[in-house]
Amino acid sequence: MLSLSKTINLNRTGLLRPLAIAIAMSPTPNPRARKQPRRGRYSSQLASTRGNARGRSIVQNATFPTSASFAEEISAVVVPPLSAPVPLSTPRFADLGAENLLHPILLQTITEDLKFDYMMPVQAATLRPLLSERADCLAQAKTGTGKTIAFLIPAIQTLINKTRQPRDGISLLVMTPTRELAQQIAKEASQLLNRLPYYKVGFAIGGTNKTTEMKNILNGCNILIATPGRLYDHLSSDETVADAFRNLDTIVLDEADRLLDMGFMNSIKDIIKLLPDKQKTNRQGMLFSATIAPHVEKVAHLVLSKDYKFISTIPEGEVNTHERVPQHLITVPKFSDVAPAMVGSIREEMKLEGKESFKAIVFAPTAAIVDFYTNILSQLSDLPPIKALHSRLTQAKRTRVTDEFRQAKNGILVATDVVARGMDFPSVTNVFQVGIPGDKESYIHRLGRTARAGKEGRGVFIVTEAESPFAKWTLKDIQFVATAADLSSASEVFRLVSTMETHAKTYQSWLGYYKNHLKLMKWDNAELVRQANVYAKEGLNAPETPSLHKGVVGKMGLKGTPGLIVIPDPPRVPRGGGGGRGGI
């Protein structure tokens, strides 16, 4: 029997009204000196948002097929209704304490140590059902809205309620797509455990010593933050690791849509199979996702009970970052013009903002190209500090760069998509996207690193004429301001590039990336190689066409393409140890 829920229209106009009125009525002898109460994660922002959350319908108590193909399973899934409305008032964390939903020690940590008074919307919408009912929940919320606190508080309260001890093993498992996001979550968890030091937070994130990780997991870890690839590595290689989850109370998939977009579905399935059965442990499940696509629904039945609540804090009609941030499109004739255009645009934007507060992220397609642009920018003395961030850096280096840029008042971070989602860097004034991203979603999420927490921001998208169909068609809904390229630094950039010794590395990386975009640019393999060789000469100032190993050429699908300089593969060196699945 089908049971369809009605659409719930939520008037969020009044969401912050009680707080706004309270502040308006209070005496304000010195508005600049008066500190406003904090909400959830950030200092309070009282600008109300308008719109209604969109209701959806689903077959109630539906069972999910297990033997059908993945495509058939997807087609059977529809989006659930809003089964828990966003509150129309702005509650305080103290309200949860008054209802005996929060332990006094945890409440003191939140209100006295972290100085959080009022909840942010995602917290107000989710905390009560998560705490009072221990309900399973699929929550739609954007990054940077306080959702980490929303899932950590109920999980820590469960730790307290069940009087878990370090020897009891892992009570909370959080799976997240990247190491950086995992570290950010762990930092917030440690802050919430400030007055409960006997509970320990551990990692399973790759890029760190696997043996040390395993020891930490087995020796009194109560909260584990993990990327799926490394977690499966541990679970599948040692049965004692699975035993550490014998008292698993809560499992969270954060950035669920991105987890699946990055190909972690099979790893998540395998991990769930190795964990204690949900029916036996009665564990609580939570999924937090910015978008609710069919594949997110697909994974929901793995983690959540069939009567889970769906809560959205993204109202219909809310203006997204890409709809309100000025975005400039710079198109240059050749790939050798891209770096000079980048330098010219950065300098121009820095003049508008002022060097002291200019804080920008420059997105590049690959790690090698990130290093190439970083080398150029680092040698320009008129720019603020330059840092690079990509997956090929050591974990210690990535952590240091992330922390330093987060705390910096100004600077430029050159990065791959490793920071496109989930990472919160305060006060980013500009986002530069140099070269085309993988898809429209990547473009939007990159741009979302600026104009956060109510602040303004600007975007610049730099492409060649060959890449321009991406801006014209893939991003046809984006309102770009066509802007002329400033190539005045071309000779300066060319001189800097001539001193570098990374021609072969950048050339290979460029070839590999644009091999995946031949259809967009209407190239064949021969044209790709011809363009790459021109770029090597004019853009990288390479004395000759860089050579490629035979195996690399084969993997790129370029075997036999004219214009390549192919050399034999180096002798193979035996390697020990096993690799992870799907890690970053």
UniProtKB/TrEMBL annotation:
What does the UniProt keyword field contain? ATP-binding, Helicase, Hydrolase, Nucleotide-binding, Nucleus, RNA-binding
- Region annotation (Disordered) ranges: 26-52
EC number annotated for this UniProt entry: 3.6.4.13
Q: Which residues form the Helicase ATP-binding domain?
A: 128-310
According to the UniProt record, what class of enzyme is this? Answer: hydrolase
Segments of skewed composition (Basic residues):
32-41
Catalytic activity, as annotated: ATP + H2O = ADP + phosphate + H(+)
Q: Where is the composition biased (Polar residues)?
A: 42-51
User: Any idea where the Helicase C-terminal domain is?
Assistant: 345-501
Task: Tell me the CDD domains matching this sequence.
Answer: DEADc_MSS116, SF2_C_DEAD
GO function terms (MF aspect) = ATP binding; hydrolase activity; RNA binding; RNA helicase activity
Similarity section: Belongs to the DEAD box helicase family.
Q: What is known of its domains?
A: The Q motif is unique to and characteristic of the DEAD box family of RNA helicases and controls ATP binding and hydrolysis.
Q: List, alphabetically, the PANTHER family matched.
A: RNA HELICASE
Q: What does this protein do?
A: RNA helicase.
Protein name, entry field: ATP-dependent RNA helicase
Q: Which organism was this protein described from?
A: Monilinia vaccinii-corymbosi
